[in-house]
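call fold(seq) -> tokens
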Amino acid sequence: MPDSEGLLAGTYTYGTKYNVDGSVYASNYAAAGNLPAESVLYTYNDLGGLQSSSGGYDGNTFEYVTDTQYTRYGEVARTQLGEPGKRVWLSNYYDDHTRQVNRMIVDAEVSAPMQADVHYTYDHAGNVTSIADTPQGKPADIQCFTLDYLQRITEAWTPSGGCDQAPAVATLSGPAPYWQSFAYDKVGNRLAETDHTAAGDTVSTSAFPPTGHTLSGVSSTGPAAPSRASTSTTPAATPSPASCPVPRSSWTGTPTGAWRRSPRAAMSPTSSTTPTATA
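ret:
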């Protein structure tokens, strides 16, 4: 990195070593900021599935992934993280026919192990229609979604019961209750977003030119509307919260509503089966 980059200036050397079968044996990471240089090692099972990983620096060794179990179809069933006394288990359960993840559990090595118990439902096209986190001894967090013929979210809400009840402000519940509605035009632009609250509806309407997809402005009305309309030159092709939700790892700032609680992020959990004590 050139000197013009200030604190980022310097040389960073990264490296990768491979096993004879082409799988990664080790990754070497350069020091950066307050992080020292580190090498991460990987092990595999007899079928080539990633089994464990460990790393270290300053003469210390840290166990990151200590065990990985797979289903007979090669899907990750259970991942064990950390060292004894500080372990976490990530467990995935799959539908017998579609192999979609229908349940994911997170357990920690603490007195009340279950940290999350997330259930997923899908429509016949494979779209997520609900996400319900119901861990033992903790408040439930249920989210429901309806989609249009182009798989765009039209309604997203957190009911006090199941998703079979129509969304209503009076029945919203959960640790972060919300109800949002979205409308689109025939060419895919998101025309309106409505936040439904006890104080009333706040409607944000997007403006587009007769041709093209360039967003020319957004005007809002309602109790949560800003003091004046905002303008933007962001192309409508840029993924919107409702039409193309993003994983939590890519969030910035303080997301709200359906953007904050994206169903798509939950469609690709990366782990696995619960410890016997909490299954």
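The chain has two domains: 1-86, 139-250.
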